[in-house]
Write a structure and sequence with these properties.
This protein has 246 residues and is mainly alpha-helical. 64% of the residues lie in helices and 0% in strands. Helix 2 (20-35) packs parallel to helix 4 and helix 2 (20-35) packs parallel to helix 7. The longest helix has 30 residues, at 120-149.
Length: 246
């Protein structure tokens, strides 16, 4: 009964999973705006280290997702929102170390994004909240995979942890790295990571571009370049460039 209840809640969380990052970014920027702090320490040097550590954690999460999306089989690990789908069972590459590498990447990414607010408390809250969310989403998806792949999934799940990756046992990916599919799947997440950095930085100037010091405008230009790159990928999508990359 407990497992079934986890799956029921997980299905609801699965459907709305695309909104979490927007909520975490918005709350983090609000915290940065209220506190004006780059980090939780008293010295500027320590807070700068906190910023780079936060960016590193967030980027690591994005990298995990990039690798996973690039090697996953077509027709699996999709962006659909209504229900789980899988054309085949992914068991190689990142899936040989953990059953849900995309969700591991998201948990790590969310935690880093929360840390960019400068609040370690918010970082801890987002980490544990993300684990709770994706644990339930994973249980829901695994019920679907068991119904579709049966013993093949049970045998794989018996060897591979759900959300805590193994450090050994890497199996060479079954497929080549799909660059086009990786870009199609992760372009928005990378853009949102850059936007989170930008918004948390701008929040400390009360979101007023005119208040940005001249020596710091490179951050504005960097975000502008990222936005332009994202817009280009969206335009390519409108012309069907990614149509075969489900």
């Amino acid at each position: 009964m407990y497992q079934h209840e986890m799956a029921r809640i997980g299905k609801t969380l699965f459907v709305i999973r695309g909104v979490y990052i927007y909520a975490f970014i918005a709350i983090g920027a609000l915290i940065a705006w209220c506190s004006k702090a780059v980090g939780p320490f008293e010295t500027a040097e320590a807070n700068q280290l906190w910023f780079w550590a936060s960016l590193g954690v967030a980027s690591l999460g994005a990298f995990i997702r990039i690798i996973t999306s690039g090697f996953a089989a077509l027709g699996t690990s999709g962006r659909v929102k209504a229900a789980a789908e899988a054309a085949e069972l992914n068991t190689t590459g990142p899936y040989s170390l953990v059953r849900n590498p995309l969700y591991v990447g998201r948990i790590v990414n969310y935690t880093g994004i929360a840390m960019l607010s400068g609040s370690w408390v918010y970082g801890v809250i987002v980490f544990f909240l993300s684990v709770l969310i994706y644990e339930r989403v994973s249980v829901y998806e695994e019920e679907f995979l068991i119904s579709k792949f049966g013993d093949a999934h049970r045998e794989w799940a018996a060897r591979i942890p759900m959300l805590w990756p193994k450090l050994t046992g890497w199996v060479k990916p079954k497929y080549k790295f799909w660059w086009k599919r990786m870009i199609w799947r992760e372009r928005q997440k990378v853009f949102l990571l850059g936007t989170s950095v930008f918004l948390n930085w701008l929040a400390r100037y009360d979101f007023q571009i005119s208040a940005i010091p001249a020596e710091s405008t490179h951050w504005l230009w960097a975000w502008g370049a990222l936005a332009a790159g994202f817009a280009l990928t969206e335009i390519l999508g409108l012309f069907g460039y990614y149509k075969d990359m489900r």
